[in-house]
Amino acid sequence: MLALLALVLPAALGADTLLVSPDWLSAHLGQPGLIVIHADRARAPYDSGHIAGSRFLALGSIAAERNGVPVELPSVAVLDSVLESVGIGDSSRIVITGDPLAAGRLFFTLDYMGLGGHAALLDGGTPAWVAAGFPVSADPAPETRGTLTALPRPEVLADATWVRAHLRDSTVALLDARPPANYAGTPGSSPPTGHIPGARNIFWKTTLGGTPSVLLPRATLAEMFRAADAPPGKLVVTYCQTGVQASYLYFVARYLGYEVKMYDGSFAEWSQLAGVEVETGSGE
């Protein structure tokens, strides 16, 4: 039943797949089944003004530390409870706003939990909503709990063993979402890390443009991926330092129609492993 809803709901509501505009959201706000989630690291931006009826979700509630690596996915049971606590259920159509990185991480989490077909990001987030002339509210949303039947998709995750086995796989594009200085291991960068061998760099922020920042046109994003040796047809695997920036690039890859995985442990885990290689430089 959940898989069927994932196919039907976006078309029934008229939403562009994975991304909706402020105009679209305004026209559908309050529609049965539609839930807006404001994802952020801290609650203050939500409290200062949010889309009426939207629910707050803290990034920390969908992240866990494991073996010294931060921002790992919690257990399915924990995620199920957290998502239900903000009203998400099997028939929900979810629009995500808030901090772009927190929003991207929530999208990745929903995709892992089998809800990617139910979810979309609000293009430009709340700043774009305000710029379009729509009001915000300081009133908290009513507390209603959803009922969720989780169908986790472990196939969207790549671990270190998988990455090692595919370092020289010509069908895989490994993309590093961090700033260029971190990717290159530039002296003085914080931290001066370098990158996984063979990875190419697409800093997640370069996928956005304008004021307020919105996602760049599909054609521009597609060319950006081609330039990073990720043409259509390749399996894209994203990573960063701790799996947050990579989550946003994961969303962009999904938006462009790629099959995509994320290495959740990312460089924080990779750099701790014995016997692994690390490259420096621009990777060109």
What key phrases describe this protein's structure?
Oxidized Rhodanese, domain 1, globular, 2 domains, 11 helices, single chain, 14 strands, 284 residues, alpha/beta, 32% helix, 5-stranded parallel β-sheet
Q: What is the compact description of this entry?
A:
This protein is α/β, with parallel strands linked by helices and 284 residues long. Helices cover 32% and strands 18% of the residues. Helix 5 crosses helix 10 (245-255).
Q: What sort of overall outline do the alpha carbons produce when their principal axes are compared?
A: globular
Number of helices: 11
Amount of beta strand: 15-25%
CATH homology-level superfamily of the largest domain? Rhodanese-like domain
Q: If classified by CATH, what would the architecture of the largest domain be?
A: 3-Layer(aba) Sandwich
Classify the helix fraction into a percent range.
25-40%
SSE ordering: HEHEHEEEHEHEHEHEHEEEHEHEH
Rg: 18 Å
Give the number of DSSP strands: 14
Largest sheet: 5 strands, parallel
Largest sheet strand order: 1-7-6-2-3
**In terms of per-residue confidence, which ranges show pLDDT below 50 for 5 or more consecutive residues?**
1-15
CATH class of the largest domain: Alpha Beta
Topology of helices and strands:
Blueprint: H1 2-13, E1 19-20, H2 22-28, E2 34-40, H3 44-48, E3 55-58, E4 64-66, E5 69-72, H4 76-85, E6 93-98, H5 100-112, E7 119-122, H6 125-131, E8 157-158, H7 160-165, E9 172-176, H8 180-184, E10 200-201, E11 208-209, E12 214-215, H9 218-227, E13 235-239, H10 245-255, E14 260-263, H11 266-270
Parallel strand pairs: 1-7, 2-3, 2-6, 6-7, 8-14, 9-10, 9-13, 13-14
Antiparallel strand pairs: 4-5, 11-12
